[in-house]
Amino acid sequence: MTKYVYNFTEGDKDQKDLLGGKGANLAEMTKLGLPVPPGFTITTETCRYYLGHNSVPEQLDDQVTRAIADVENVMGKKLGDPRDPLLMSVRSGAKFSMPGMMETVLNIGLNDESVLGLSQIGNERFAWDSYRRLIQMFGKTVMDIDGDLFATALHTLQERNGYSGDLDMTTEDLKELVGTFKDIFKKETGIDFPQDPREQLNLAVVAVFNSWNTDRARIYRRREHIPNDLGTAVNVQTMVFGNMGQGSGTGVCFTRDPSTGDAGVYGDYLENAQGEDVVAGIRNTLSLADLQRLDETSYNELVAIMKKLENHYRDLCDIEFTIQQGKLWMLQTRVGKRTAAAAFRIAKQLVEEGLITQDEAVTRVSGDQLTSLLFPQFDKKAAKNVLTRGMAASPGAAVGEIVLNNEQAKERVAAGASVILVRRETNPDDLEGMVAASGVLTARGGKTSHAAVVARGMGRCCVVGADELLVEEVAGTVSIKGTNRVLKAGDIISIDGTTGEVFEGAVAVSNSPVMTYISEGLQSALQATDDADTQDLVRAVDMILTRADNARKLLVRANADTPEDAQRAREFGAQGIGLCRTEHMFLGDRRKLIETVILAKTEEAKQAAFDALLPLQKGDFLGIFEAMDGLPVTVRLIDPPLHEFLPDLTELSVELGVKAAKGEKISDDERALLEAVKANHEQNPMLGLRGVRLGLKMPGLIAMQVRAIAEATAELKKAGKDPRPEIMVPLIGSSREMQIVRDMAIDVLHAVSQEYGVELDLPIGNMIELPRAAMSADTIAAESDFFSFGTNDLTQTTWGFSRDDVESTFFNEYFDYGVFGISPFESIDIHGVGAVVEMGVERGRRTKPELKMGVCGEHGGDPASIHFFAEIGLNYVSCSPFRVPVARLEAGRAAISNESPRGVGGVANHTA
Ligand code: PEP
Ligand code: MG
Prior knowledge:
Layout: E1 5-7, H1 16-31, E2 39-42, H2 44-53, H3 60-75, E3 78-79, E4 85-86, E5 88-94, E6 104-108, H4 114-121, H5 124-142, H6 147-160, H7 171-189, H8 197-211, H9 215-224, E7 232-238, E8 249-256, E9 263-271, H10 277-280, E10 286-287, H11 288-294, H12 296-313, E11 317-324, E12 327-335, H13 340-352, H14 358-363, H15 367-373, E13 377-378, E14 386-389, E15 391-394, E16 397-403, H16 406-414, E17 419-423, H17 431-436, E18 439-442, H18 450-458, E19 461-464, E20 469-472, E21 477-480, E22 486-488, E23 492-496, E24 501-504, E25 509-510, H19 513-520, H20 522-527, H21 532-551, E26 555-559, H22 563-571, E27 577-580, H23 591-599, H24 603-627, E28 632-636, H25 649-661, H26 668-679, H27 692-697, H28 699-718, E29 724-729, H29 735-756, E30 764-768, H30 771-775, H31 777-782, E31 786-789, H32 791-799, H33 803-806, H34 811-817, H35 833-847, E32 852-855, H36 863-871, E33 876-879, H37 884-896
Parallel strand pairs: 3-4, 16-17, 17-18, 18-19, 26-27, 26-33, 27-28, 28-29, 29-30, 30-31, 31-32, 32-33
Antiparallel strand pairs: 1-2, 2-7, 5-6, 5-7, 8-9, 8-11, 9-10, 11-12, 13-25, 14-24, 15-19, 16-23, 20-21, 21-22, 23-24
The chain binds phosphoenolpyruvate and magnesium ion (MG).
Magnesium ion binds near residues 769 and 790.
C-alpha cells in the first residue's frame, strides 16, 4: 500500500522530493527535538496522483484519519472539539520554495460551536477573530471568492466605527463580521460555510493541490525553471497562536543577514499577530533586539535554536516562529535565500568558522549570483538628491520610470523603457511587474516581506518599507508625506538596493568591485575601496573562484574576434579563444572585394580580389594572435551564406526598377550584380551554401584565409612571439569534406612554412553543427585534430527550426505547453541536442581517444549546460568574454558537485 501521509516524526530533511521542502524540514526539526507543533505531511506523490486523476487516492482518507488521531493523542485535544478544539493549519510545501505562490488556510476546525469552546479557553475576542479569519481565508483560497468582498466588508465596519485598524475591533464587531462573512460565503458559493472540521480540512488540502496550477505559480516555475510535474506536498499542523495578546507574537529570523551576509542574528517580530502578518508586510515590524527586551526567555531560547539549526544545516537558516503566551514554537526552517553578495560572504565565513570546506563553499554559490555581482553600482561620488529612504532588501542600482502596476510595467518595458515598480506593498499578483521591472520599491513591509523575498530570489534590486511614500495607483502619483513633492508615473527615479535610498532622477552608476577584481586582480580591487564589507566580498569571490579554478577540469575559452575582445577575455581569465569568427572581417569596405570575387568573370580577377584581401585579413590575425600570445586561438574559416555579402535582392530590384522607369541607363555591372544576387538567392540560407560548402565552391577563399593565418603566425614567431592558432572548418557533415579542406590547408601551410623558414604545424579541426557530423564523428575524427561543437547550429539542425524564425513565432506557446522549460538556445536541450553532442564525443573518441573537444555555441556560457558538458567529458567551453568568470565558477562547481545535471530538479533544463 502506498504511504501518502507522513507524521512529522517519520521524515527527515533529505526527503524533499516526497515531503516538499517545508515538510522535510519540519520533520528534521522534530527529529532534533525542537518545539514543533505536531502535524503531518501529505506527500507530493498524492498531489501528482490528484493532478493526474482529478481525485485523491482512495487510501488517503484513512491515512489522514490516522494521522489526525496521532496528533490528537499528543495534544490531548480533538479536531474541532466544541469544548476545547484542536485547530490546524493547512499549507503547501513544494520541493523548491515558491514564495507567495501557494495558499495557506489557518484555524481549520473552527465552527459555530467550537468558536464558543475556544472563547472559554483563550479569550472571546481572539476566538471570534480566528473564526472570521478562517471564513475569509477559506472563502478566498479554497472557494475562490473574490478577496475584496471580505476586505471591503471589514473596511466598511471599521469606517462606520471610526477605527484606525484591526486592533480597534471589539468582540461584538468580530461576531458581526463572522455573520457578514458567512453571508458573503453563501451568496458567492450557494452553500453554507462548512461546519464539519474534517470537511474543511479535506477541501483545504485539495485547494492546495489545485493551487499548484495557478497562473502565478506557473509563471514563477517558468522563471525559476522548476518542472511543472513535481506537485506540492501539504502540511497539516497544529495551530499555535501569536495573536493571543501581549506575550504572544510571531516572527521571521535569519541566522545571518541575508541581504549583506553580515554575521549575527537578524529578524523581524510582530507582537500580537498571526501567521502571515509578518510576511505580508502589512504592519511595520520590530527587530529581534526588541524581542529580547519584551521576552528575554523566549529570545534566549530562539537564539540557541538558531545556533543549533545553523550548525546542523551548516548554512544560513531562515526560520519562522511563534510565541504563544510566552511559549516558543518553531513553525518552519529552511536554508535561506540570500543575495549574491551574501552568498559569497557567508560561504567564506562558514569556511573560516570550520563549518564547511572550501570545496563546499564553491557549491554554495552560483554563476548567476556571480553575474549579478558584475553589474555596476551607483557612483558613490555622483550628485544625488535623496527623495526618501526605505530598507535595503535586495542589492543593485536601478534607474527607471515609475510604474504603478503590472500593466504599466509591461507596456513601458515593451516600449524599451527601464522601469521601477512602485507599490504600497506587493503580493503574488505583482510578480509579472516585478519580472519586467529593473527595480522594486514599496512603501510598506520589512526585509522579509513578499517584495523583498521575491526580489532577492530574482536578483532584482529592491527597496521596501519606504513609509514616507504615499502610493496612489488610481491617481497615478507617488507623493512624499510631509512634503509637497509629488511624482507621477513616468518620472525617473533611482533606487539603491544596497542602502535603501531612493533618488530623484537618474543617478550615474559605476563599476562593480567584483568586476574590478575579475579584470584587475585582488590587490587593485581591495585598493579601490575602503569599505570593509566590499573588501570582504572581494576576498570571498577570490577565495571561491580560485578554488573553482583549481578544481575544474574544463578549460574556459572565449568567443572573440577583435584584439580588444581578446584582451578583455584574457583579463577575465580566458585560457584561449575557442571561436574567432571571421565573417565580420569581410564587411564594411571589404564587402566590395567579396562582391568582386562573386562577380569575377575570370580566374585572374577573382585572384586579384583575394590578393587584395590577404594583407587585410593577415592584419586582423596579427592583432588577435598578439593579444592572445601563448594561448590557443581557434580561427573559424568563413561561414555565412554568400548572399550576406551581396545587396538585398528586393532592394536592388526596386532600385534598378525605379532607375529603368525613370528612363535612366542601367550599367552592365549593375545588371551583372542583379543577376548574381538572383543566382545566389536561397530559400533557406541557413541550410544552403555556407560553411565548408562555400569554401569548397570557392577554394581561393580557403587558401587566402589559411595563408593569412599562416603568414601572421610565421611573422610573429620570427619576432619571438608565441602565436598558437588553430584552423577550424565550419558546418562539416562528412569526412570527405574535411579531408579535402585539410589537404588544401596543409598545402598552404607547407608553402608559407618554406617561404618564411618557420615551422607551421597548426592543428586543423572542425565544428560539429550537423547531426550527420555527430553520427559520422568516427570517420571525421580521422581527418581532424579537434572538434568544436557549435551548439547554436546543432540546436537548429537537430530540431529542424531556424532560430530567427521560431523564437518570435511559437516559442511562447511552447513554454506554455511545457514543451520547453527554457529556450533550447539558452540552455542545452540535454535529452535531444545534448544526446547528439554526447554521441559525437563518444564516436570521435572511438577513433582518437585523446581528441580535444570543446563547445563554442552560446551554451558554453550557460551554467546548466556547462555542468552537462563537464559530465560528458568535453575539454573546454568557449563563451562570450563577459561570461568567462561565470563559466570558470560553474566549471569548478561541476567538478566538485556530484549532482548530475540530467536528473529532474538538478541544474538541468526541462525539455519534454
Ligand atoms: C554555432 O553554431 O554554435 C556557432 C558557434 O556558430 P555560429 O553561431 O556562428 O553559427
Ligand atoms: Mg554555427
